[in-house]
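Dear colleagues,

For the upcoming journal club I promised to circulate an example of a predicted protein-ligand complex. I picked one with zinc ion because it came up in last month's discussion. The inputs are reproduced below in full, followed by the predicted structure.
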Amino acid sequence: MNIYSFFLSILCFVCGCSRSCEHVDHLRNWMCPDGRLKVLCTTAFVAELVDAVGGEEVDAIVLVPFGGDPHSYKLVKGDSEKFARADVIFSSGLGLEQAGALSRYLKAASAVEVTQAIEEPIFHEGLPDPHAWLDVSVWAKGLDVIERVLAQKRADKKEFFERRANEKRETMHLLHEQIHELLEQIPERDRRLVSTHDAFYYFARGYLSAPGQQFSDRVSAPEGMASEGQISTRDVEQVVDYIREHEVRVVFSEYGVNTDSICKVIGVCREQGLDVRLAGEYLYSDVSEEKIDYAQMMQHNARAIVRAYMEGNGER
Ligand SMILES: [Zn+2]
């Protein structure tokens, strides 16, 4: 048992929590060679794609823990060993993992960005928008990258990876259609989304606007593409102007993201006599909860938006 495994054992003993112990056990097993490809993924969304393609041939762990902000994740004790042990490292890419040390580690380790196959990435104010997972059809492009890279590592399993990737493509295609159908319950002119940070441009292009039409004016948020940034009075005013212009009645908080900025927006709206309320359900943007998978997360977002619309805007 090396020092790292010993440390994990102690942590498992001390924590006394079965879920933490499951994680610790998984990490300890991941550290030991067992014939499977050891894959390090920066986020749970990436790991879910990798598991779908790799099946029992891969053993994937997630670097940023549930609830952690992938925009600002700082490496912790033990992370460098994960980089050293991984056979393959997949990141989300498009600037998501932008925090200094993590960004440098990913570059040095030649991590593969699963978003590299996206044909038309969205740029906002000159920067790539990393939130590609919020359009299922776009996120599914990651399967191409993962299938190719895993097959390079295990040429004898090429057909296995190909079959599993095709199966996942089919389920993601159906999910994409389902999200479309859910949101089509809202009249096209009212398909707009005000939330905490600029995470929903891909969602807007995929589900809130007609194909080929302008989509960036379908969403508005006080915070920029990386949540928890500084916001100015002007940022809040711009969102309030948007709400007034488009007669938006309900705005959304995001899971794991501070609600101060969106509450500020509601406060200013009310001062100006605008009837706006916070939706009863938050949306998932950068992170989801451990108890739900990617499909459930996307379904939740679509249904929460429809429910909020039906309860609020739909009554006018
Ligand atoms: Zn974000």
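Two points we might discuss: The CA atoms of residues 240 and 268 lie 7 Å apart. Residues 71, 131, 197, 199, 225, 227, 285-286 surround zinc ion (CB under 6 Å).

See you all on Thursday,
B. R.
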